[in-house]
């Protein structure tokens, strides 16, 4: 069965089980080699990259839908996703699936709900679905070189802006870093999210003042430099800071 | 024509022009008498209060839809609304319209997109629509005493939380306050949004440090106390601070 037949077959089923006009697109960010990356699928039908999105069942809460979609499409489980924006332009999905007529479920207008999450990519064992020829982490620096479908580039950029805004007033990093990390690794994470270099002294002072770090009785060894201290997050204080925010008031 | 007949008639038209399963609900906050209030409609069909929400046309961008809805339902024009959350529980609108069968457009499952905005209530001349017996600003302190439909109480609470989070890292108030205001009025606005009292000295120092205020060559006269200085927002600096946020980094 080629990918066109596959869509026609799935379309009949989709009309039965999914709400029309509504989709969910998860943007999963990972941090690796001092860079951010994002989880994408390359579709069989036309070789473009997509977020691992999908549709909402008629009898399913939206929040459950996005978790099921991520599991179905990429094998990713046990993630906590947060809504960040809705993409509702009338023609955002209009020009896709030109090989099909309007009866195809996948071809209608979709308003999509964007969700995002931050995770350490090592955690996941990716499994691609039947519509995709691959399921991969792509570095953000590689995005200009690949073809992204529809408005998925805009969705990723908006997720990144949300993350940038969020890091200015909430602690972030718990899910992105390994359990033990150096202050320099944490600084690098903040720098790639904020898109700017930070002054080392200021950063160390501010991050320590938050009271969310535990200094461990260990050092990172093996580097060329003096072995740096290792830290982990203080889970209770981290959760409190996440709850209350780092208010200016 | 009673309200039941009215719904049946509208339902036929609605199926033609609107996307099924999708709605938009604007939460418009105003500030008056040192309190926040919210714009609500009281529906003819059953005497409950609603946000002035509605549906998205098949040929309409979501952002245009919410502005049209607000104009149609409350006569409110020229507002800038921001998305804040999607409410997608499968049964959130299920138990409404019990007097009708499932063919009524209004009775299906709706995933609703929440938008919010902050405005000085004096700006608007409210005009209720044909479904409503009134269209009013209701003080937040009055909400526990009125009957709100479906999950509209939860939507308002979530909008307020969003506003609270936002005020911790962006300047807010430009649209809520009169053109000229005292620091004490601005502090009161921050206090009602944050839901806590602020130290006067700290607040004055921090707000002045943001560089978003212009001290005017005028004082508020007529009060019992020493006439306080009047301020207005410095529009350019305010816009910059809104754009860049008050980052901790």
Task: Report the CATH topology name of the largest domain in chain A.
Answer: Nucleoside Triphosphate Pyrophosphohydrolase
| Termini Cα gap of chain A | 61 Å
Largest sheet of chain A: 7 strands, mixed
Order of helical and strand elements of chain A: HEEEEHEEEHHHEEH
Q: How many helical stretches of chain A?
A: 6
How much of the sequence lies in strands of chain A comes to: 25-35%
Mean pLDDT of chain A: 91
CATH arch. level architecture of the largest domain in chain A: Alpha-Beta Complex
Percent helix of chain A: 25-40%
Oligomer: homodimer
Structure description:
The structure is a homodimer of 249-residue chains. Chain A is α+β, with helices and mostly antiparallel strands and 249 residues long. Chain A has two domains: 3-156, Nucleoside Triphosphate Pyrophosphohydrolase (Alpha-Beta Complex), CATH 3.90.79.10; 183-244, Arc Repressor Mutant, subunit A, CATH 1.10.10. In chain A, 31% of the residues lie in helices and 26% in strands. Chain A has six helices and nine strands. Chain A has helices at residues 3-17, 62-74, 152-167, 183-194, 200-209, 235-244, and strands at residues 18-32, 35-43, 49-50, 54-57, 82-87, 111-119, 132-139, 213-219, 229-233. In chain A, the strands form two sheets. In chain A, strands 1, 2, 3, 4, 5, 6 and 7 form a seven-stranded mixed β-sheet that branches. Chain A has a two-stranded antiparallel ribbon with strand order 8-9. In chain A, strand 1 and strand 2 form a beta hairpin. The first copy, chain A, starts with a helix and ends in a 5-residue tail after the last helix. The mean pLDDT of chain A is 91. Chain A binds chain B through residues 19-22, 56, 58-63, 65, 83, 85-86, 88-90, 109, 111, 113, 165, 167-169, 190, 194, 198, 203, 206, 245-249, and chain B through 19-22, 56, 58-63, 65, 83, 85-86, 88-90, 109, 111, 113, 165, 167-169, 190, 194, 198, 203, 206, 245-249.
